[in-house]
Design goal:
The chain is built from eight helices and no strands. The chain is mainly alpha-helical and 150 residues long. Helix 2 packs antiparallel against helix 8 and helix 3 packs antiparallel against helix 4.
Length: 150
């Protein structure tokens, strides 16, 4: 079990730096022309893999507010088994999974999706930044034991 240490309260400058990285990743997504729902799908998928309840609740709510459907959100964890996701969303989800599981990348099979054939260079870079940032948030919230109560 991790010690009960709230990193963001103890080191507010680190929290502000993470918020700035988050804002930069969001701006990159807009610049790259990524749809806001795709951005939320990336955040939800990485948070699922990492088991971050706080971020899952937040980004599921954000996705719903932006018009995402409950059916699609229910299937994000098994997106490759459905026909709900566009080729661009599939490419973004594969990339997000590969970045999130970067330590296992060389040993774990991944769904066959042509990322470079679907996402242009800026879009791929934006998805990568979004994934890095949400992974950092996941680790901060899990390590800090952010409460997730009904």
């Amino acid at each position: 079990m991790l010690p009960n240490i709230n990193l963001t309260k103890l080191f507010p400058a680190a929290y502000e730096a993470q918020r700035a990285a988050d804002q930069a990743a969001e701006e990159a997504a807009v610049t790259a022309g990524l749809h806001p729902l795709l951005v939320e799908l990336v955040k939800v998928r990485a948070s699922q893999i990492n088991g971050c309840a706080f971020c899952l609740r937040m980004h599921t709510r954000d996705a719903l507010e932006k018009g995402e459907t409950t059916d699609r959100l229910a299937l994000v964890a098994a997106w490759w088994e459905s026909q709900y996701f566009t080729p661009q969303e599939q490419a973004a989800l594969v990339l997000a999974e590969r970045i999130t599981r970067i330590g296992d990348e060389h040993t774990a099979p991944a769904p066959q999706v042509d990322i470079e054939g679907v996402l242009d260079e800026k879009q791929g870079a934006a998805v990568t930044l979004l994934t890095i940032v949400i992974n950092t948030w996941n680790r901060i919230t899990i390590a800090s034991h952010y409460p997730v109560a009904p």
